[in-house]
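protien #1 (seq + structre)
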Amino acid sequence: MKRLVLAAAAALLATPAVAAGDYVSIVQEATVKAPAETVWKKVGGYCDIGTWLKTTCEITQGNDRELGAVRRIAGRIDEVIVARTPLSYTYADVDPKILYHGTVEVRPVDAKTSKIVYSLFFDQASIPADQREANKARRTAMSGGWLKTMAGIAEAP
């Protein structure tokens, strides 16, 4: 028994420590003068991001808007849908070095108005400490631009 306890203690001491993350959340929203279902039909496709970013996007695995679908943005960034609802999806980068997840969601406000909500969660521990605030500001500005683009698309006739 004593050997078992000592072996367990040795195993715990030999386990490498996991580095603590430096997690950041960015949540932004835009009000849209259109019903939620109409907005979602216009901006809820998984590769609609290609339009917002003015780049390419292709579904490389699975089906658009379905759990497990993988998209490739700009020929180099792969992301997978890890959760979805009728008016949202959450995606994750398949390369876990910054552990990012994003959610695109449309929320009804009333019969004629809705909100597009974009949430981004990521670990910036791999980013040099002196660059983290600038990185967060860049990501905030970038996603704010996407929201404006999505709102414009959603409100277009």
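ok now protien #2
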Amino acid sequence: MKKQRIFQFISVMILLCGTLSAQGKPVQLALFNPIQLFSENTSITGLRLSLIYGKNTSVTGLDWGLVSHTTSGTSTGVQFGFLGINEANFIGWQDTGININHGSFEGLQLGLVNYAGSVNGVQIGFVNYAANMKKGLQIGLVNIIKQGGQFPFFPIVNWAL
């Protein structure tokens, strides 16, 4: 029953999100780059499932995989997995073991380690790092805000108003 619901959810995401943009492909299935349906230079609008490692320019929608990697533009939506790497910007909910965003991040990051260039949102994890925090909150054992935060380093909680 649980597998059937997951299949139904994925099917609905493909149908609903797949028609959002003519620029991207609606579905990406990746074993590891370059063994994936579409090349890494393609943006995905809908669902990306990365069994081991998936790499694309951006993802809008559900990004689910062991290692998920985007290289440019702004990715929006939800990202689940073990490692999420975004070389550009991300807006939404990132829930992986290790979250790495080199650009700006807006939304919620949940993970053991959260790293972002610029943050406007919430980071919850054991280690949270923001090079620049505009507005937001960090909750964890180690919280570092290099620029814009209440404290450069503070355990348990740190913030920027």
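The CA atoms of residues 29 and 37 lie 6 Å apart.
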